Amino acid sequence: MSDSSTNGRRARRRDEIPQRRLARTARLASLPLGVAGRATVGLGRRVTGRSAAEVQADLQARTAEQVFTVLGELKGGAMKFGQALSVFEAALPEENAAPYREALTKLQEAAPPMPPATVRRVLDEQFGRSWPERFREFDDVPAAAASIGQVHRAVWSDGREVAVKLQYPGAGPALMSDLTQLTRLSRLFARLSPGLDIKPLLAELRDRVLEELDYRLEAEAQRAFAAAYADDPQIVAPRVVASAPKAIVSEWLEGRQLSSVISGGTQAERDTAGSLLALLHYSAPARAGLLHADPHPGNFRLIDGERLGVIDFGAVARLPEGYPEPLGRLTRMAVDGDADRVFALMRELGFVLPGVDVGPDDVMGYLSPILDPLREPTFTFTRDWMRDQAARIADPRTEAARVGRLLNLPPSYLLIHRVTLGSIGVLCQLGATAPYRALAEQWQPGFGDG
């Protein structure tokens, strides 16, 4: 066997996502070990005279950086989980949230890129060796990198600017290995997002993430969104130019990243972005038969200060009939305070199982504060409101926590529930004032009929 072929295989292995189970598990295991090690060092520094506050701030900053480094380098399911967590950071107490916010936000669009040789190998495999003839220009340096792929800017043969999304080699085995190992480390990650039940989130991610590996499914969903919002003055979904199992070429979408609006946008920009995000959430099932199911800020752009651009369609919920009508009807009953009818419908739909020790007043006490955004024509979403809800539901000493543990979430509603919470989390990060009730009345079947 020649040295050149051996070296070629070694280079190819280095280019792929680290996927040997023991190696990836060791990297993930370094997170709790690193936290423990820093805590020991922190104790030593405190003894030598540094204040507790200084030591704690240093520990949190270092932990956040390690979370980003490990999850970002592993890509795959580890980074996908980090992106999902970043949506919920608005629920963290501020003293815990601040050190992690920057690191988790980085996960939304940043990861160590593939080398140019690997990029060209993927393009060869997906479009054939003559792929350069389809482009006037192709930038080897990625414009963005995410959990299972990275995006390159290019110019198509007809002169259109395009985004070329390529999947990392080895992404599939990495995804499954990561999600299995992360389930075992859920207690550690629960510290980053108290009030969020991590294990169901991981289980649901596992169910959905395999679909994201087939870019043909993503291209199909993107085409449906692009057709539904063609020439729409508020929502922009770029058209697909070409697709393959592990590559998508679509029209380039220029705009300000939503994470930038969160960190430094004016209040007007925040309100506009929040209102448009809520519009997308409510209208997409009715218009496209799909729910955009990955509402982290890295997937959105604010265009010209007045339109919302959507750039990732890998995770969707297929709702060909739109939102389930009973869900809208149930929500409207709850907003109107009709406890008996709410309880009866929840039992009918499977939210309250037979023999469970809860009654109508218990259920309304649990639901009522969560429905605040739907009580008035507009609502201002804030981190404080989100934290209050998370604390109320998560604190085992509260009645809301007791009731929440007894309620059931039917599988058919699980993804809708997660995406709704995720969208609200982003609205709270924006601090946006939005016409949430009006959008529900216009687009959610059953809600506007009350």
Query: Largest sheet, described in full?
Result: 6 strands, antiparallel
* Count of helix runs: 19
Q: What's the number of structural domains?
A: 3
Shape: globular
Low-confidence stretches: 1-14, 18-22, 31-50, 191-196
Written overview of the protein:
The chain folds into three domains: 127 residues, no CATH class; 99 residues, Phosphorylase Kinase, domain 1 (2-Layer Sandwich); 119 residues, no CATH class. The N terminus is likely disordered. The radius of gyration is 23 Å and the shape is globular. With 450 residues, it is of the alpha+beta class. The strands form four sheets. Strands 1, 2, 3, 4, 6 and 7 form a six-stranded antiparallel β-sheet that branches. A four-stranded mixed β-sheet has the order 5-11-10-8. The chain contains 19 helices and 14 strands.
Helix and strand topology:
Blueprint: H1 3-15, H2 21-47, H3 52-74, H4 76-87, H5 94-106, H6 116-127, E1 135-138, E2 144-145, E3 149-156, E4 161-167, H7 171-184, H8 186-190, H9 198-212, H10 215-228, E5 235-236, E6 240-244, E7 247-251, E8 256-257, H11 258-264, H12 267-288, E9 290-292, E10 300-303, E11 307-310, E12 316-318, H13 325-335, H14 339-349, H15 360-367, E13 379-380, H16 383-394, H17 399-406, H18 411-430, E14 433-434, H19 436-443
Parallel strand pairs: 5-11
Antiparallel strand pairs: 1-3, 2-3, 3-4, 4-7, 6-7, 8-10, 9-12, 10-11, 13-14
Helix pairs in contact: 2-3, 2-7, 3-4, 3-5, 4-7, 4-9, 7-9, 12-18, 12-19, 13-14, 14-15, 15-17, 16-18
Compose a concise summary of this entry.
Helix content is 57%, strand content 12%.
